[in-house]
Amino acid sequence: MYPKAKYINIFESKFVHPNKTGRAGATYATNSDKTVTIRLDAVISIHTEKIEYSHHRYCTVTMSNGFRYKITEETAEEIRLCLNIDSIHEVRGEG
């Protein structure tokens, strides 16, 4: 029998462009109001990308069905913890 699938809820990101009078701030990613439920065993990759003209970063999680979600680095870390990424790398490294 197959193990039961695990799901988690995550927030998609939105980009914030701070704009104060006289100076422009760096664009950054923050959680939006959109909640998405993802199946952990459908995650193919999580990678970090730079925001153009900013020192901040955001992450993209790619699913097996081709969907991609932009998320914050904090959300990506939560997904990595749920996937127990460290143990996956240890197992692959032993072979």
Quickly describe the structure.
The protein has 95 residues and is an alpha+beta fold.
Account of the protein in words:
This protein is α+β, with helices and mostly antiparallel strands and 95 residues long. Residues 87-95 have low confidence and may be disordered. It starts with 6 loop residues before the first strand and ends with a helix. The relative contact order is 0.22. It has helices at 73-83, 85-94, and strands at residues 7-16, 19-20, 23-24, 28-39, 43-50, 57-63, 68-71. It is built from two helices and seven strands.
What portion of residues belong to β-strands? over 45%
Side by side, the strands of the main sheet go 5-6-7
Radius of gyration: 16 Å
The number of helical runs is: 2
Low-confidence stretches: 87-95
Global geometry: elongated
* First-residue to last-residue Cα separation: 26 Å
Share of helix, binned: 10-25%
Topology, number of strands: 7
* Overall average residue pLDDT: 83
Order of helices and strands: EEEEEEEHH
Structural class by secondary-structure content: alpha+beta
Quick one: biggest sheet? Answer: 3 strands, antiparallel
Characteristics:
elongated; alpha+beta; 47% strand; two-stranded antiparallel ribbon; 95 residues; 3-stranded antiparallel beta sheet; disordered C terminus; 2 helices
Helices and strands in order:
Blueprint: E1 7-16, E2 19-20, E3 23-24, E4 28-39, E5 43-50, E6 57-63, E7 68-71, H1 73-83, H2 85-94
Antiparallel strand pairs: 1-4, 2-3, 5-6, 6-7
